Amino acid sequence: MDRQKMVIIVTHGGEDPERATIPFVMANAALATEMDVTVILQTTGTWLAVKDYASHVRADAFPSLDQLMKDFKEMGGKMLACVPCLKSRNITEDMLIEGTRQVAAGTVVTEASSANATLTY
Amino acid sequence: MDRQKMVIIVTHGGEDPERATIPFVMANAALATEMDVTVILQTTGTWLAVKDYASHVRADAFPSLDQLMKDFKEMGGKMLACVPCLKSRNITEDMLIEGTRQVAAGTVVTEASSANATLTY
Amino acid sequence: MDRQKMVIIVTHGGEDPERATIPFVMANAALATEMDVTVILQTTGTWLAVKDYASHVRADAFPSLDQLMKDFKEMGGKMLACVPCLKSRNITEDMLIEGTRQVAAGTVVTEASSANATLTY
After folding, report:
1. Coil, helix or strand for B1?
2. Across the interface, do B106 and A25 touch by the CB < 8 Å criterion?
3. Among A32, A38, B64, B106, which residue carries the largest CB count within 10 Å?
4. Which chain C positions have a beta carbon within 8 Å of B39's beta carbon?
5. What distance in Å separates the CA atoms of residue A27 and residue A38, rounded to the nearest whole number?
6. What integer pLDDT is reported at residue C2 of this predicted model?
7. Which chains does B contact via 3+ CB–CB distances below 8 A?
């Protein structure tokens, strides 16, 4: 049987720590149940792909985003970032967390339409 | 045959009356077609779980949120609220609308992945 | 075999050009892969249904929204707008882009629950 798959689109960064953090809490909970999880960063959410950025984002009563993202990567989560969203923020490849994949809309559509659930934060 | 199921995640409260109200309009329309509906409150949306809070939220041209939430409950809708979101707002159990279930991320993942559609507002 | 179907709910207009534009980039990428696509406009997103409005919305590094919406229509995308959202903004039928369908919650529920993926922006 195919593994279940969850796609989580993140559209907030440090300007809204709770909306930036919750997606990774969800993602890690899904990974813990043996689901495949892809996080897709769009709009201000693309800032989360920048090395060391997450260590400056902290939502009250939640685990640290930095640690959540490390756990996410370790458990095999995939992280994609929207190309024009990166470009308009002058975020260049050398600034990205290792393993972040830069993708265009077609890939987002493929990911979302192959998922059992897609959440957008 | 299994009943269809819709999950609606609400991430806005009184600071955005329209985004707080529309999810319950959707939820009640889905309940009216015999679907199972679970509303999950996160971020500022958790305020909606507080007794009497909804009576102070009103979106122009929409039915009153208070009435929508009463109808939702009467038609069998389930309402869940995110534990850390409640905690960071000092919302305690005695303040919650009867029947509200406090849940962690694992439950949200289970709900979303078992739904035919998941909407996030 | 049934065609795949994507529903995209748009809840931002000119106040957030990137969140108004990305849904149509996604929509057109999905249409290009032979999926059926329905865009549903809610809250401030309903402004996008007003003729000539999109020509004043421009997100850095993205194609023009105006052109994206023209392509969307030409490729057969369906655009629905939430009735109370239009009403509260005094947007009347004569102001709408040709082909825009005004819908109540029941239609949104039907669309979302028949889709392979529903994204909310």
Report:
1. coil
2. no
3. A38
4. none
5. 8
6. 73
7. A, C
